[in-house]
Amino acid sequence: MNATPLIGVLGGMGPLATVDFLHKVVASTPASRDQDHVPMLVWNVPQIPDRQKALAGAGESPLPAMRHGIERLNQSGATRIVIACNTAHLWADALAEASAAPLIHIADAAIAAVERQGKPGGPIGIVATRGTLDSGMYQKRLAAKGLLFLTNTGEEIDALFTPGCYAIKQNRLDEGGALLESAARRLVERGARALILACTEVPVGLAHARSDLLPISVDPTQALADACIQYWLETRPA
Amino acid sequence: MNATPLIGVLGGMGPLATVDFLHKVVASTPASRDQDHVPMLVWNVPQIPDRQKALAGAGESPLPAMRHGIERLNQSGATRIVIACNTAHLWADALAEASAAPLIHIADAAIAAVERQGKPGGPIGIVATRGTLDSGMYQKRLAAKGLLFLTNTGEEIDALFTPGCYAIKQNRLDEGGALLESAARRLVERGARALILACTEVPVGLAHARSDLLPISVDPTQALADACIQYWLETRPA
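Above: the input entities. Below: the structure tokens describing the complete assembly.
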């Protein structure tokens, strides 16, 4: 007997981004009644050491707290694991190893969405934390498809991206939205013809700012939601 | 040693209402970083038999599926249980009995919010499912405070309220919002001076419709979110 499908969500990084992810799953599911929606168990426990600080060597590792969440999700019957945070995917290998349920990687889902959109007429801008950029998780996958990319400078990350992210986490959406919009716009000014909003705070901020960059953007949160829905539609009991 | 606080959320009834509840918790929490937010574990598994049909004698009981969710939340360390659905509270006694973690009852949270608003200049309209109304869970609590109330007629429930609820569950927000708004407006036309939106689909629908009834409304979903935040602020480790 196959186990009943259950998406285990490691959330809380940040909490609003997790809610945004869940909303995207529900809003994008073809459903005529409650029972048609995707079954999810959400470990939305934000008491995880700061990922950006840990990567900068300025704080304790988030891995034990994340692994604890993954274990709880597995114990409760999760059949797939998703992590509603790009930066946390730096620990994806260690977490996948600690999980009986396979991980759906957010960058795989995002690159599949890029491919569905067709080739852009120029490089793809990646808006992400320093940790996500340093890992190369997006660059490697784009390069493998023969796609060009560009990223924010260190100055732009410090002045626009990072304070924008933290403002969203503090529920200061006007300020956070404007800062993250500016970070994304710099890439377009340097020639980006498409964007990957590769930090879960960014789509939240750009949606709040009603940004005109959204139509050329791929939202990995939405792509991950779509991958969860596809899994559910393929595996749900008849 | 006290257990680490963890709010266990029995969700999925309906899925969008659960996301709305989680959003209200995050948006209302005083937070300067991820780690300040309320730790929650969300059993958002909508494969629970239809509550309204079960109460009408036309379907199987939702209790076993709800009890299963409550057990999983307890096993994973929940220290309080909340149910993001008013109608499901008809089974609140049986669920509280199956739970080591105490239940924060949505109607208790809502009545506390009514009291914080002060006495309205007339009766309070209760917008709710037939099941919630038949249980008297809101009427009993209002009567105990000496407050008058009124409710929709059976015809209004059949023509406006119930189809409005199901439309929201199907992601048809324009239609659902308009129907639920009309159900609420009938109560105001009959003299209600305040409203309790005692079904989790109703605040979602009225917010989508940008209803001018929201300023005189108490939202039990928001009240339950506030009760969770208060619990977290009182019990969080120093």
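Note for the figure: The beta strands of chain A are 7-10, 40-44, 80-83, 124-127, 149-151, 194-197, 217-218.
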